[in-house]
């Protein structure tokens, strides 16, 4: 009997897909409930406090993971890029979502419905192992953020965040920025920040006024130049995200 095509088979992230090991009858179950959803900027993938309705994989765009306080205020916890899973904690625990997922850019999300996803996980231990690795990776990221907050200066952490954003969203300009000492100009890259400055402050765990001072210090160092949400900074193409 011919094996039906894998629903994730044409995705550029297939090799590291959670569902890659699925075969046989489990693949039919996976295919039955597999859907793709286009999400416009500002669209919500799932709400905080809502029950889990499946597992989500980002195949295009950028998703902000936010936490809301009882007074309605929110904080940006992290950004999720194509190839990443979101919503799997609620799926694994059976609890409501503790965060909200909202599209920052036009995005596409692939969804496997809750009931069928559970059947596939039970039928394919390799999928469960991959879920475990995703959880471990998330814990490692949290550990790194705690370590950096304690050991790395806020200015250096801001530079790191801007560098990662430039890798994903920037492009070479052909222009240059002179450094503080007036040394030779350096080729720069330019991007429009995909998130607000408030969100950027949330990622760093600082107040917006502190972020403004940090950005001023980076500009004085010749490390960047900012105008509204546009950022220019020296950048090596070798750092571009794969």
UniProtKB/TrEMBL annotation:
One of its GO terms (molecular function) is DNA-binding transcription factor activity. GO terms for cellular component: cytosol. Residues 152-237 form the HTH crp-type domain. PROSITE patterns: CNMP_BINDING_3, HTH_CRP_2. It comes from the Bacteria. Residues 18-131 form the Cyclic nucleotide-binding domain. Keywords: DNA-binding, Transcription, Transcription regulation. InterPro entries: cNMP-bd_dom (IPR000595), cNMP-bd_dom_sf (IPR018490), Env_Response_Regulators (IPR050397), HTH_CRP (IPR012318), RmlC-like_jellyroll (IPR014710), WH_DNA-bd_sf (IPR036390). The keyword Membrane does not apply. PANTHER family: CRP FAMILY TRANSCRIPTIONAL REGULATORY PROTEIN, LISTERIOLYSIN REGULATORY PROTEIN. This is Crp/Fnr family transcriptional regulator. It comes from Litorivita pollutaquae. The lineage of its organism: Bacteria, Pseudomonadati, Pseudomonadota, Alphaproteobacteria, Rhodobacterales.
